[in-house]
Design brief:
The protein is mostly helical. It has one domain. Helix content is about 80%, strand content about 0%. The chain contains eight helices and no strands. The chain is globular, with a radius of gyration of 17 Å. It starts with 6 loop residues before the first helix and ends with a helix.
């Protein structure tokens, strides 16, 4: 019986998405946006935000290729553009430039800005679309979907226990985790751009 899950693809996809979404980096923003909520309301907001992000990324994973075909955009072009977007996010993490949690305008924080664009941002969407594009059907697609669900489940755990995790990591630990995530993400971004360039060269021949 053929295995339905590719272990290597699952690991690489899950690690990439986890680094992009950066749950430790989300904690300060999440705690700031939900500071006026009760513990139950904060947990509910974390659950809704995780579901919103999962739904947005899943829709793009399913129909992203049709959108690209309609816009006449090639996968190598998407790789280069996605790599540039990821590099910008990585630089923000490395430099400590976060989103201002005080800029909330009253819209449900579970949808905006937590669900999107903080969690289901351009980087996560592009990375998932590329993983689906390059994965074989059906094994690869099942693997990518499982990796996406796993990562969003981990994000949900981070948000649910945000207060406890911050107490353990403290401010210095949270900052350190964000810096490490930024370093890993910058390497992923450069690799994605390099793959796009090689894809352009392959199409030219």
């Amino acid at each position: 019986m053929v295995a339905l899950v590719d272990g290597y693809l699952f690991l690489t996809t899950a690690v990439t998405l986890f680094v992009i979404v950066d749950p430790p980096g989300l904690l300060p923003v999440f705690l700031g946006l939900t500071s006026s909520l009760t513990t139950a309301q904060r947990r509910s907001a974390g659950t809704r935000a995780s579901l919103v992000a999962l739904g947005v990324i899943f829709v793009f994973a399913l129909f992203g290729q049709q959108i690209l075909d309609y816009l006449h955009v090639s996968v190598p072009a998407l790789q280069v553009a996605g790599g540039l977007l990821l590099l910008l996010i990585a630089l923000d993490l490395l430099m400590g430039r976060g989103n201002d949690p005080t800029g909330h305008d009253g819209v449900n924080v579970a949808i905006v800005p937590l669900g999107t664009p903080l969690m289901a941002g351009p980087g996560a969407i592009v990375a998932t679309m590329l993983a689906v594009q390059q994965a074989p059907f059906p094994t690869g697609h099942v693997t990518v979907a499982l990796a996406l669900v796993t990562v969003m489940g981990l994000v949900w755990l981070f948000l649910r226990y945000a207060g406890h995790i911050q107490a353990v990591l403290r401010e210095s630990g949270t900052i350190l985790a964000s810096r490490i995530a930024g370093l890993l993400l910058s390497a992923i971004a450069v690799q994605m751009m390099a793959d796009g360039v090689f894809g352009f060269l392959a199409q030219a021949h």
